[in-house]
TrEMBL record:
Reaction catalysis annotation: alpha-D-glucosamine 1-phosphate + acetyl-CoA = N-acetyl-alpha-D-glucosamine 1-phosphate + CoA + H(+); N-acetyl-alpha-D-glucosamine 1-phosphate + UTP + H(+) = UDP-N-acetyl-alpha-D-glucosamine + diphosphate
Family membership noted in the UniProt record: In the N-terminal section; belongs to the N-acetylglucosamine-1-phosphate uridyltransferase family. In the C-terminal section; belongs to the transferase hexapeptide repeat family.
Protein name, per record: N-acetylglucosamine-1-phosphate uridyltransferase
InterPro entries, per the entry: Bifunctional_GlmU (IPR005882), GlmU-like (IPR050065), Hexapep (IPR001451), NTP_transferase_dom (IPR005835), Nucleotide-diphossugar_trans (IPR029044), Trimer_LpxA-like_sf (IPR011004)
Superkingdom of source: Bacteria
EC numbers: 2.3.1.157
Species per Swiss-Prot/TrEMBL record: Candidatus Entotheonella gemina
Enzyme class name: transferase
Protein location: Cytoplasm
Stated role: Catalyzes the last two sequential reactions in the de novo biosynthetic pathway for UDP-N-acetylglucosamine (UDP-GlcNAc). The C-terminal domain catalyzes the transfer of acetyl group from acetyl coenzyme A to glucosamine-1-phosphate (GlcN-1-P) to produce N-acetylglucosamine-1-phosphate (GlcNAc-1-P), which is converted into UDP-GlcNAc by the transfer of uridine 5-monophosphate (from uridine 5-triphosphate), a reaction catalyzed by the N-terminal domain.
Pathway note: Nucleotide-sugar biosynthesis; UDP-N-acetyl-alpha-D-glucosamine biosynthesis; N-acetyl-alpha-D-glucosamine 1-phosphate from alpha-D-glucosamine 6-phosphate (route II): step 2/2; Nucleotide-sugar biosynthesis; UDP-N-acetyl-alpha-D-glucosamine biosynthesis; UDP-N-acetyl-alpha-D-glucosamine from N-acetyl-alpha-D-glucosamine 1-phosphate: step 1/1
Keyword entries, A-Z: Acyltransferase, Cell shape, Cell wall biogenesis/degradation, Cytoplasm, Magnesium, Metal-binding, Multifunctional enzyme, Nucleotidyltransferase, Peptidoglycan synthesis, Repeat, Transferase
Gene: glmU
Amino acid sequence: MTTSPSPLAIVIIGAGKGTRMHSALAKVLHPLAGQPLIAHVLDLAIQLDPLHLVAVVGHQADAVRQVCEPRGAVCALQEPQLGTGHAVAQAEPVLGGFEGDVLVLYGDVPLLQLDTVRTLLDAHRQCGAAVTVLTAVLEDPSGYGRIVRNGQGAIEAIVERRDASPAQLAIQEINTGIYCLKSPFLFQALTQVGQQNAQGEQYLTDVVGVAVSQQLPVTHVTVSDAQETLGVNTRLELAQLEAVFRQRLCEAHMLAGVTIQDPASTVIDAEVRIGRDTVIAPQTHLLGQTHIGAGCVIGPQAVIRDSTLADGVRVEPFCVIRQQTVARLTTVESFSHLK
């Protein structure tokens, strides 16, 4: 007789300003492939069918709410922002005595894959762990907290970079910040976590040390592709992650039967849909909620935004189409501007 898995709550931390973005816009609202960063994380979370979905908001809270609430998230306000542990603590009143598993994600980590998260959840539940940590091994772990293990190889602590000793800084296994935790343990442990560190913040990482001190099981999953867990802190990193994300989108369309002649010069947003046997010529941009039918030929150098093209449409070079519906077998001649 199999037992059903523990109910799941997901908490997405999205309260920070993102100082290193040097922007008037909150970091998690910066667009990547046509959607705010946090929208990609919400879309991943929804696929896990959680009982509770909580977004912790802070900087530009109202604007972040406008992205989160239509996707079914309940927003919890973190004001002021006193660290990741403090952020997660703001979700406790929303969860209202929830006793299942809590998955902690971040609104600026858009490349995380569904299979990776499911592997983390499976490991957590199979081991009956109080805390399960998603780790990664990096050639250059600069800037990340390190996973400290004991002589038996078990995790005994996570040490943030600013608080690490030289020996700990030599460790290449890093904390991604993504955890699954038993809810009763999590919120009890957060009451024991102080702010005695270089940042003067309440670190979520310190709950691992609480679990170890209480001799509760702590386990981990090491992600096979560390790129999945990279976050955005600067505009350079945003551009780097967007390039990876767009490459994935192109690959998915090609595997589904779309010809993309030059993926490196083609821009396709996350919500775009393309029918099979369509050919996308170089330097074409398909943006917003554009839907392209089957057997179309698009470009080169066409820009199509928020439009629907039926099957068999041909869009010749240098066309711009915005918020239009184009009928089946239509040819849009070169240099046309439809809006």
